[in-house]
Design brief:
- It is a single chain.
- The chain has helices spanning 2-15, 21-72, 78-98, 113-140, 145-166, 170-191, 206-223, 231-252, 260-279, 282-303, 308-344.
- The protein is 79% helix and 0% strand.
- It is flat and about 95 Å long.
Length: 350
């Protein structure tokens, strides 16, 4: 009705000679653009409101579950406890499905408030799935302690991967990646040789090797862009998995396998440094620097003890990191300057 009145007024002013046809058309375009801007702002405000209400509702549900666990958990039978955890997992997943989306979620990256809300709800549902699996397998079914970690992480991985297939968001990607590393390590620990508990218990190197192999696959996929974006997240988490896999292997390398874990940890740091230099990428370099703080002190303690030798090794590693950062910065700057120059040059004349 408002649009019809505006069109009638513009036609009347045009008939009276107050406006030309071009001026009336420009006014219509301005009014349409203004209405579109107002609707867009209202949409953003509504999106933030929906997201905020969703987070507030989730917090209230978490508080309610905490109250039930704190006051009545000990009085509930195992079946009711399992049902409560499963209902929480299913409810969070259904709430994520119920969030309206303006575009198909599967295969889409990024998005507005609705997409972020669905991503957070499904991440919480993944955590509830892990808690449900841990309780049901550990308390109701009473699975062997040898396999429970692998089974819980594997079931949670299936849920996280399903959510990631439906919604290509960073939270779902991170959950899938991290759970794949945990599952690999737990499965290797369950399949590998079991140590007899006691003061002479020797940690195994096999879980660290399994984590390292799976992390390497993710790292390579991230480097070559074979995983939906953000690529930097895959590279960072894959590199962190390589470091932690090397650390786990390093823990057992003092006892067996000819110090294979120590060599693997050091080779991981060198490999991350080489990738950072060859690809002029700061992400592997940052991961390598953090890994150095965790791995190098253990390696120094294993091979050099204390004193002057340890200090010299630390100085050499620190100097290598500084040099690598300078080289990457110097190589990236000419490329950026050349790109800026190409944009500034006028197009060639025929």
């Amino acid at each position: 009705m408002v649009e019809s009145h505006v069109d009638a007024a513009l036609r009347l002013w045009q008939d009276d000679g107050l406006l030309s046809a071009e001026q009336a058309a420009e006014l219509r375009e301005d009014l349409v653009a203004h209405d579109a801007t107002v609707e867009q702002r209202r949409g953003h405000l509504a999106g933030w409101l929906v997201e905020g209400l969703g987070y507030l509702g989730g917090a209230l549900v978490a508080v309610a579950v905490g109250l039930v666990v704190g006051n009545y958990w000990g009085e509930l039978a195992d079946g009711w406890r399992a049902a409560l955890l499963v209902a929480l997992c299913v409810g969070l997943g259904a709430a994520g499905f119920a969030v309206p989306q303006h575009a198909p979620a599967r295969g889409a990256s990024g998005g507005g408030a609705a997409v972020r809300l669905r991503s957070v709800l499904w991440l919480a549902s993944t955590g509830a799935a892990a808690a449900s699996a841990a309780f049901i397998l550990g308390e109701v079914i009473d699975v062997s302690d040898r396999w429970i970690a692998a089974e819980v992480s594997g079931l949670a991985l299936l849920v996280a991967a399903a959510y990631w297939w439906l919604l290509r968001q960073p939270l779902q990607l991170a959950a899938t990646l991290v759970l794949s590393l945990i599952t690999a390590g737990a499965l290797a620990g369950a399949i590998g040789p079991q140590q007899v508990p006691g003061p002479e218990e020797v940690p195994s190197t096999l879980p660290g090797l399994a984590v390292w192999v799976v992390a390497l696959v993710w790292f390579v996929l991230g480097l070559y862009g074979r995983v939906p974006p953000p690529r930097e997240l895959v590279v960072a988490l894959g590199g962190a998995g390589l470091v932690f896999g090397g650390m786990i292997a390093l823990t057992g390398s003092q006892y067996a396998w000819g110090h294979l874990g120590a060599w693997l940890a050091v080779a991981t740091l060198i490999g991350l440094l080489a990738v950072a230099l060859l690809r002029r990428d700061f992400v592997p370099l940052i991961v390598m620097a953090l890994g150095t703080l965790l791995i190098v002190p253990q390696v120094i303690s294993m091979y050099f003890g204390g004193g002057l030798g340890a200090a010299l090794v630390l100085v050499a590693v620190g100097a290598a990191l500084i040099g690598a950062a300078v080289m990457i910065a110097r190589r990236r700057r000419p490329r950026a300057a050349a790109a800026t120059t190409r944009r500034a040059l006028p197009p060639p004349q025929p």
